[in-house]
């Protein structure tokens, strides 16, 4: 390995915010087998110069030694090692303050689509620089390096930092957004109670870590299944973070429902609005055709085949994930990533007048009589500040009420199964004979 000093390419200087010296670094949480790779500290670069440590193998993590101590927060390789001190302020001063975004399961299928959308500006906007904090495990650390290399090679101007680690207490430090995707997939023959327990433990641990080190107003989107109950476990383990800040991803279900309605009505899917998914991200979820609209007209007036709405449509949305697994041999990854983008954009941009979106949120104070203390998908609106409010005047008829009650009962049963993880006593798991928990399971 050698130290090199290079002239900064002109192109680079145009996108770097230089109001203060900026260090782009991919900080790799060192697992023990990397700890022998030590380098002298990085040079301080003069203006318009880049000082970088160049590794023979650009994939190899690099540790920096300071006063004889390994500083694990300063490891870097490749482009994220570069230290810039550039005078291009006038070109970048309209950029917003950098935000830190954590993604767990970052070497998995969904992340592989999502990270590149985040880094491109498609989620938080073209003037929002971001730092990505990628959480993996010992089994995925090599793959995470591969992810970081691909992020490097994509030359995203807005991507200012990539941080890789296996310890949520390090990776979640100061994050303003946490997208929790990593979870054990349910294998053949695995009891639902076992999955709730295994994944619940992951989310209990991550909730504690967020509580301790994340920004106090961090927004958390739980994707890993069973996402509603995982989100509940996470928030119960993070008492310092407002419960309102936790979401379970049901936007994929909303998007699937819009697609099915558009198909049936023979319209493009942007004509479908006011689509609520009520309840659990499972086959008990309730896609609400009563309040949805097509071209501003109630769906039931446009699609007069009400039997199809109650049976064919509802079932197709509930079971879409499972069908996709049959075709693909794996669960939805690209469309899930797109729906994560949609879910976050719905919180950071004002909701169009009269419309709403669905997200799984904490039920305390809800106007629909849904039991408190659950994470339940409901219609929400946002002013675009990252926060949301429940839409309060959505009509619920007998058909919807019965089905919403079924999804509520399922979530209450899941909640009893994880009482040991939410601080609510001894778990009692009776999930009933019908397997409804994950739409995608095979
Ligand atoms: N809410 C929704 O709409 C949807 C949710 N999902 C859910 O998202 C999650 C991730 O899906 P996807 O990215 O396709 O899955 P992958 O299998 O590609 O990735 C999952 C990641 O989870 C991590 N993981 C954490 N704990 C374990 C464990 N005990 N055993 C195995 N892996 C573990 C692994 O990363 P590492 O080793 O780094 O920890 C792995 O990379 C799943 O729970 C899936 O059911 C999927 C589609 C839609
Ligand atoms: O169970 C899964 O992994 C897939 C899933 O949630 C979905 O497609 O909705």
TrEMBL record:
EC number: 1.1.1.82
UniProt cross-references to Gene3D superfamilies, sorted A to Z: Lactate dehydrogenase/glycoside hydrolase, family 4, C-terminal (3.90.110.10), NAD(P)-binding Rossmann-like Domain (3.40.50.720)
Major location category of this protein: plastid
Signal sequence residues: none
Keyword terms, alphabetized: Chloroplast, Disulfide bond, NADP, Oxidoreductase, Plastid, Transit peptide
Localization annotation: Plastid, Chloroplast
Annotated ranges, domain Lactate/malate dehydrogenase N-terminal: 100-247
SUBUNIT field: Homodimer.
Protein name: Malate dehydrogenase [NADP], chloroplastic
Natural source organism: Camelina sativa
Lineage start: Eukaryota, Viridiplantae, Streptophyta, Embryophyta, Tracheophyta
